[in-house]
UniProtKB/TrEMBL annotation:
Encoding gene, per UniProt annotation: secE
Keywords for the protein's UniProt record, in alphabetical order: Cell membrane, Membrane, Protein transport, Translocation, Transmembrane, Transmembrane helix, Transport
Natural source organism: Hymenobacter cyanobacteriorum
Cellular location(s): Cell membrane; Membrane
Cross-referenced HAMAP family: SecE
Residues annotated as signal peptide: none
Name of the molecule in the record: Protein translocase subunit SecE
Keyword Aminoacyl-tRNA synthetase: no
């Protein structure tokens, strides 16, 4: 039990005194970048999905 309490004590000290936390402005910029990147990724995947769907439909309909 002593090891566990020592672990939590050192973890709290590390988080409080040694970690450099980003400012609010940096967090907002990072969140905006993640949002834009996620939207671009979603659009690319959506376009790929629609194009593959139409190609496969055309392929399957050619055998009817």
């Amino acid at each position: 039990m002593d090891k566990l309490s020592n672990y939590f004590r050192t973890t709290i000290e590390e988080m409080r005194y040694n970690v450099t936390w980003p400012s609010t402005t940096e967090l907002q910029k990072s969140a905006g970048l993640v949002l834009v990147g996620s939207l671009v990724f979603a659009i690319v995947v959506g376009v790929m999905d629609v194009s593959f769907e139409s190609v496969l439909k055309a392929f399957y309909n050619s055998f009817r």
